[in-house]
Write a structure and sequence with these properties.
Subcellular location: Cytoplasm; Nucleus
Number of strands: 15
Structural class: mainly alpha
Largest sheet: 3 strands, antiparallel
GO cellular component, one term: cytoplasm
Organism: Marmota monax
Domain SET: 110-443
Bound molecules: zinc ion
Helix content: 40-55%
Strand order of the largest sheet: 3-11-10
GO molecular function: histone deacetylase binding; methyltransferase activity; zinc ion binding
Shape: globular
Strand content: 5-15%
Length: 633
């Protein structure tokens, strides 16, 4: 990617003064990629270039010379030592995966155990002290469906970007970012990263989904997840689950009425009272909890909490889907078993199972409201030529992660979650003491919403009243007085009171100020942040000092809003580090890189793009000869 950028920049008239620096960077990329032949070619080109032109300022010439020398050595080292990882890299690799698996729960670190609490139900508890950044859960989705239609780019700067939807950029099976997709022969909608992904998808679910494309888009992503879940299960535990269901159905004479269907779905809870062998729902006989259909099936459907309208809509969607499946199956039979691609999965056997499938799908539809997990990714926005990568989080897909679903909610969670294709990774975001519960945020985070809005969201979607510490203290504070619209006294930090003229709430303090004055200062600050963002987007090298100054201000705003160790703060520090790096402000850049790295390591792990970039920047800066801070040239 870096190389492409360089070639693009060179063909678009990059200033000649900076050409040597760029070529050096190119050589560096080539060395990192292991293209040693090309790298040494670039290096020798550079050398002859230096000899021909003496136009460079002495100081920058020295820097380039020194780096050139270093690169040459690197090429030689690499040539003599092929394909071995330096020890620091190897150590970071280990951290990508769980060093040891938990014996009780798959995909989980041994520092955690599964417990049940009479009030909260299932929960994960730390069995020893956990350090920030420690990997706690790494789980592949049991099922995932790409979200249809959301536009990844909203900028109108580039006409082409706005026409690309998520479905065109990511593999519909493994969610890998792909530019050259392989489309399905049957529908133009499903696209894959490779022939292999396409075949796998076809074999496991797409042969059934393909002719239902339009219906699935209409019914929504939850319905699609429920269908794919049952299709995937056909190849796994279908026997076990359907026989359980069949017993229930044969005991129920008036089966086809949906009223009874919904009631019937509670059967496993009644059963659990009698069966003492599996004390924790979702575990197998030996008490192990795994990423399998049994665990998915035991996620709570909250049947009693859903509104009748919601339950009716779910039942309607499922029956529409079953009707369509039945029709597709009989069409396949009519055209003969050999002439249709559908024969692989839609057979008379499927029709017989359809009733059982319908029940299972309805249960999954009801589970999804509380158990669906949004799979997100950081999407890089802003143009390629800009120095600073701008990024925002987009909802890529909807999935079910039975192990992640064991975690309860907190509005100020002690973990941080990220995704790589369909794999969810949860790390400790702070020190977690032995005996404390592992918590993550279901969406309403204290940094993004006030307490009233969070409580309302959690109650309507997840059916519980949040009593996390953040909600507790914030409710007390809200009861005491307003928070978001208040100003602090400049000298004693007490909340100011009054309408047009604000005076300090502290009686021994005499500060007073007009509201207009404060509001205009606030607007100034917001303008500064906007300016910084604009300068960053335009990405002119000469403006780096201005950009840095604006960013410092925006950093203070982000810190106040999201907290000093939030992931938002990490992204902001990353931007500042890039600006300082590009301006060759060495001590400031190193300092900022360290701060950004500390925060992002905890949230994103050692192999995230940003951490990698930060480490590259640092090693580059540390290799520079000691020169006074300031821009090059
Ligand atoms: Zn793929
Ligand atoms: Zn298709
Ligand atoms: Zn809360
Ligand atoms: Zn005061």
């Amino acid at each position: 990617m870096c190389l492409e950028d360089i070639i693009r920049a060179q063909t678009h008239g990059y200033p000649e003064r900076l050409q040597p620096k760029m070529n050096l960077r190119k050589a560096e990329c080539l060395v990192t990629l292991g293209k040693l032949q090309e790298a040494s070619q670039t290096v020798s080109d550079l050398e002859s270039d230096f000899a021909a032109k003496q136009t460079l300022a002495a100081s920058s010439f020295q820097i380039l010379q020194k780096n050139l020398h270093r690169l040459k050595k690197k090429v030689q080292e690499k040539e003599s030592l092929p394909e071995t990882f330096p020890p620091t890299l190897a150590k970071a690799f280990e951290d990508m995966d769980l060093k040891e698996e938990n014996e009780q729960i798959s995909s989980v670190s041994p520092s955690v155990s599964l417990c049940t609490d009479p009030l909260k139900g299932r929960c994960l508890i730390a069995t020893k002290d956990i350090l920030p950044g420690e990997l706690l859960v790494k789980e592949d989705a049991f099922v995932s469906v790409l979200n249809p239609g959301e536009m990844p780019h909203h900028s109108l700067e580039n006409k082409w970007d706005t026409k690309i939807a998520i479905g065109d950029l990511y593999c519909h099976r493994c969610l890998k970012h792909t530019l050259a997709t392989v489309p399905c022969d049957g529908c133009s909608y499903a696209k894959y990263c490779s022939q292999e992904c396409m075949q796998q998808a076809w074999e496991f679910y797409h042969s059934v989904e393909c002719p239902l494309g339009a219906l699935l888009l209409t019914l929504g992503v939850f319905c699609h997840v429920a269908l794919r879940l049952t299709l995937l299960t056909r190849f796994e535990d279908v026997g076990k689950v359907t026989s359980k269901l069949r017993d229930e159905i044969s005991n129920n004479i008036s089966f086809p009425k949906s009223k009874n269907l919904v009631k019937m779905l509670n059967y496993d809870q009644e059963e659990n009272d009698e069966v003492v062998k599996t004390p924790i729902p979702g575990c197998d006989i030996s008490g192990k909890y795994e990423n399998n259909y049994n665990a998915v099936f035991n996620l709570l459907p909250h049947t009693e909490n859903h509104s009748p309208e919601h339950k009716f809509l779910c039942a309607l969607s499922v029956s529409a889907l079953c009707k369509e499946l039945e029709a597709a199956s009989s069409r396949a039979l009519a055209t003969g078993p050999n002439s249709s691609k559908l024969k692989a999965t839609v057979t008379p056997e499927l029709c017989a199972d359809l009733n059982i499938w319908g029940v299972a799908m309805l249960r999954h539809m009801l589970q999804l409201q509380c158990n669906a997990q949004a799979i997100t990714t950081l999407q890089h926005t802003g143009s390629k030529e800009s120095i600073i990568a701008n990024s925002r989080q987009v909802r890529l897909a909807t999935g079910i992660f039975p192990v992640v679903s064991l975690l309860n909610h907190s509005c100020s969670p002690n973990t941080s979650m990220s995704f790589t294709s369909t794999v969810a990774t949860i790390r400790a975001a702070q020190r977690i003491r032995k005996g404390q519960e592992i918590l993550h945020c279901y969406g309403p985070h204290q940094n993004r919403m006030g307490v009233a809005e969070r409580q309302q969201k959690l109650r309507s979607q997840y059916f519980f009243d949040c009593s996390c510490p953040a909600c507790h203290t914030e409710e007390l504070r809200t009861a005491a007085g307003p928070r978001w619209e208040a100003f602090c006294c400049n000298s004693c930090r007490t909340i100011m009171q009054g309408d047009d003229v604000l005076s300090c709430g502290n009686r021994s303090c005499t500060e007073s100020v007009s509201r207009d004055h404060l509001v205009s200062r606030l607007q100034d600050l917001q303008q500064q942040v906007g300016m910084a963002q604009k300068l960053l987007r335009s990405g002119k090298l000469g403006d780096w000092q201005k950009s840095a100054a604006h960013l410092q201000k925006s950093l203070r705003v982000v810190e106040a809003r999201h907290g000093p160790s939030s992931v938002e703060m990490g992204h902001e520090l990353f931007k500042l580090a890039q600006v300082l790096f590009n301006g060759f402000a060495v001590p400031e850049a190193l300092n900022t890189i360290q701060k950004a790295e500390k925060i992002l390591l905890v949230h994103c792990g050692p192999w995230s793009d940003e951490i990698q970039e930060l480490q590259k920047m640092r090693s580059f800066l540390l290799d520079l000869p000691p020169i006074p801070a300031g821009p090059l040239g």
